[in-house]
Amino acid sequence: MIKFKQVSKTYKNGQIVALSDIDFEISQGEFISIVGKSGAGKSTLLSLITLEERPDTGEILIEGQNIAQVRANEAFYLRRKIGVVYQDIKLLPARTAAENVAFAMEVGGVENAVIERDVPKILDLVGLKDKAGAFPNELSGGEKQRIAIARALAHKPVLLIADEPTGNLDDGNAWDILQLLLKINQFGTTVLLATHAADIVDRIKRRVVTLDGGKIVHDKQNSKYVI
User: Fold this and answer.
1) Is 87 exposed, middle or buried (0-12, 13-18, 19+ CB in 10 A)?
2) Which entry of 54, 113, 154, 168 is 20 to 30 Å from 68 by CA?
3) Element (H, E) at 21
4) Cα separation of 25 and 19, whole Å?
């Protein structure tokens, strides 16, 4: 589904090496934890997948398409295949939970009839159908993150990227969010989790990829957190 072929990325005219000769492949339906110390290259790896950055050298293929060659006016359509959830939850404060999810669909040009049909289903999937009319300030931290995940699922992405989604949550809510991501994965969506939470990675025991100094130093199935 996603393949990195000898991908390198530097900043400040080559003075800072973020990624170096990365060879890495993600199969459809996988659940992968990306771990590593700050500055290891995790954020750059994710930014390349979402087309926020372009590689200096190498190829990145998504469903066989080399995204390094995608023109700016075509990038929007490729990004719609990817849902992204961040640690910093940025819900629209003046819109309800349902309206936050609907807005993501409206921006993408989805018809109103489809939005009205799908929003309740998506909220039900994340366990918050009963909170459809609640505003962000009426939701707990865990509920806000669930709405952020619902919003990321609005376009039925083939890949869901979760970048430190539990960073601001207590242990109970953090585990609830991880169980939701595992549930989404069971429905066939590929999940790429970037995290510093060793306890969560150890509990889910899926494939773990460790970055260090811009290189992959560990890549193993059914693994624990390795730095």
Assistant:
1) middle
2) 154
3) strand 16-26
4) 15
Nearest Cα to Cα of residue 183 among 162, 208, 202: 162
Query: Can you read off the two tokens belonging to residue 94?
Result: 């003046």
Here the tokens at position 46 are 């994710």
> For residues 202 and 187, what is the distance between their CA atoms, to the nearest angstrom?
22
Helix, strand or coil, per DSSP, at residue 130 = helix
Looking at the chain, the whole-number percentage of residues with pLDDT higher than 90 is 76
Query: What is the rounded CA–CA span in Å between residue 119 and residue 193?
Result: 24
Q: What is the CA radius of gyration of the chain?
A: 18
Task: Determine which helix (DSSP H) or strand (DSSP E) holds 203, and give its type and residue range.
Answer: helix 198-204
Whole-structure pTM value: 0.92
Burial of 180 (0-12, 13-18, 19+ CB in 10 A): buried
Q: Residue 79: is its pLDDT beyond 90?
A: no
Residue where the block lists tokens 């990004």: 79
CB neighbour list of residue 140: distance below 8 Å, 6 or more residues apart: 173
**DSSP character for 34?**
E
For 36-71, what is each residue's pLDDT tens digit? 998 899 999 999 999 999 999 999 998 888 887 888
Distance CA 103, CA 107 (A): 6
* Backbone dihedral angles phi then psi of residue 23, each to the nearest 5 degrees: -115, 120
Per-residue pLDDT reduced to its tens digit, 163-177: 999 988 999 999 999
| CA–CA dist 101, 147 (Å, integer) | 7
